[in-house]
Input
Amino acid sequence: MNRILVTGATGQIGSELVPALRKKYGPENVIAAWHKTQPDRELLAGGPFCVLDARDSVAVEKIITEYRIDAIYHLAALLSASAEKDPQLAWDVNMNGLRNMLEAARKFTCSLFFPSSIGAFGPSTPADNTPQDTIQRPTTIYGITKVTGELLCDYYFRRFHVDARGLRFPGLISYKTIPKGGTTDYAVEIFYAAAKHKKYECFLKEGTRLDMMYMPDAIRAAVELMEADPARLMHRNAFNVAAMSFSPEELYHAIKKHIPDFTMTFQVDPARQAIADSWPHRMDDSAARMEWAWRPEYDLAAMTKEMLEKLSHLR
Ligand code: AKB
Output
């Protein structure tokens, strides 16, 4: 892997993945591409960058040839709640963007990373210990684009030998970027609210148990998968990866250990609750553990402690 393009570089994952890749492969070798959200100064100063709409196949191919790209982390996508508000746009961005990237990867022999999600599952999927290979009948447009993306990546590998790899991410928690338009966003908002105001109104109801992961684990997972020995990969694409699973009240109690007067109330958003109710509680990630030695480093207690330390300047 020599020259890397990251789309969606200003999003929740991209804004942490780009600096990590620049550190590992050299700043000049990682091109940060964004479309709508403006980058911060660190991203601009840290290495090459460009504005790119992944739906524009001519622009995609121009950037790939201009920078002699041989690896793509294609992160540009609408998240679940935003996608549900505008399903046509979600299909356009999530599917046409991925198709253009896969086509460019085929023509210019690039490897490609595609982030799938717990959203690729639906209400008929086993919710506990969700197997790697199981029923996938998502009821959201986001989930439909994720399953289709997983299948398309498999297809491009089988048919055209494109080295397409990917993970099914849980909800991601980070202190650097506030996520926009996701169902698991509460698990980030709560930390900012706790640090700033010592109170939080949660939009998911008590007992809504979902898989979550701290961003440093997620970044490491993506990079480790892309570095993994291809001979060991039986699945290659759409690996379940898990780190912790909790409900809003369990997260609340973990935070309360550090901020004893923290309070939480509930104001349920029916749209996001319906999405959360259709997702699994905890995925079985044994395929990732076996095929490329995946291991999470952060559990609920370790993630909570570090999040509150990093956000202590807000108090
Ligand atoms: C979302 O909530 O939409 C994302 C996801 C779990 O894919 N964070």
